[in-house]
Amino acid sequence: MSRHFFSSLTVSLIFIAAIFFSGCASNSAEPDQIPPSHEHNIELTDSRHILSQMTTEEKVAQLFIITPEQLVSGSIQGAHLESSPALKASAAKYPVAGFILFARNIKTPNQTRAFTKELSSLTPVPPILAIDEEGGRVARLANNENFFLPKFKNMEAVGNTSDTENARGAGQIIGSYLSAFGFTLDFAPVVDVNTNPENIVIGARSFGSDPKQVADMAGAFLSGLHSTGVKGCIKHFPGHGDTKGDTHADYVAVTKSWEELKTCEIIPFKQNLSSTDCVMIAHVTCTAIDTDYPASLSKTLITGKLRKELGYKGVILSDALDMGAIEKNYGSGEACVLAFEAGNDILLMPKDFYAGYDAVLKAVQSGRINEERLNESVLRILQLKGY
Questions:
Q1: Which of 226, 246, 248, 358 is catalytic?
Q2: Residue 325 and residue 254 in contact, taking contact as beta carbons nearer than 8 Å
Q3: What is the torsional sign of CA 283, 286, 287, 293?
Q4: Exactly one of 132, 192, 319, 345 is catalytic; which is it?
Q5: Cα distance between residue 298 and residue 378, in whole Å
Q6: 338 to each of 99, 227, 332, how far by Cα in Å?
Q7: What is the pLDDT of residues 52-81, one digit of tens each?
Q8: What's the whole-model pTM score?
Q9: Among this protein's residues, is 236 annotated catalytic?
Q10: At CA 195, angle to CA 191 and CA 201, rounded to 5?
């Protein structure tokens, strides 16, 4: 079964190669070749030199990955499919770290390639172009009938083969077509261990219920992504596999202690910290660890556990801050400040981007967030971009 499964992946790789050599690949230039449209020209050399040229306002903007429509209106309403004068004007004021595209932003192959190319030239430091392309039901490109791309039933099916080469092949196939369409970061793989049969959020998105298998499969998937030049993100720390509720809607509790989490949920994270490009933090509330805040806003979990105890030095980002567990309880402005104070480097999609940006900028200007802490995160983000 495993050999047959991988053979089908090999055929798919040939299909992806055809995308590149038929002229469908993105024509995006390398970072130092893209002419910025922003009024403040930044010399793109190494990360520390770029940081030294940034204003405080530009540094704060670098903390955000948002949808294109948020850049124009602040909210997630509507769907941008191409660049516009309004988008360019907003990018000049808010040169964000990057953009995330959803199914609503993706219609056809030509439109998507053109849009990602346009987005890549909007800001002085070229933006991250991110997408959720896990394989299975969360696949913005492969599940679009206009793209005719290879599809995976789910990652559980890949895990069930017990062959990490299949996970590596999946990562290579997904990375190949993401690269062809101009994307630089995939919010995948899921490393949650699916131990709760009543879980309505993770389920078959996980490689399985065995933490060692999930860890090995995720590592192989990342290797496949990296072979195509696309970066990956393990999620959702400290684990969303043993839950019933959905943080998209509201509060969700995890009752395990840190020691209990380390025997299962933390294993795939710990094993892949040296190979992942970033870690996404869940909105689950770990009641035995921090009763005050969900993980995404918890300094105890992010700075104390992930940074200090586990020793992770790379980029940390929140799960989408427009989700009910956050927006219903904190609002966009305070949520962004709390998320940054907790240790996140990137603030993903607050419901009201303008409110989030203004709140973080005000916190820096008032001294609530010090410049050194801001510089640390911006430096990590620039390094994630390859500087």
A1: 248
A2: no
A3: negative
A4: 319
A5: 20
A6: 22, 36, 10
A7: 999 999 999 999 999 999 999 999 888 999
A8: 0.90
A9: no
A10: 65
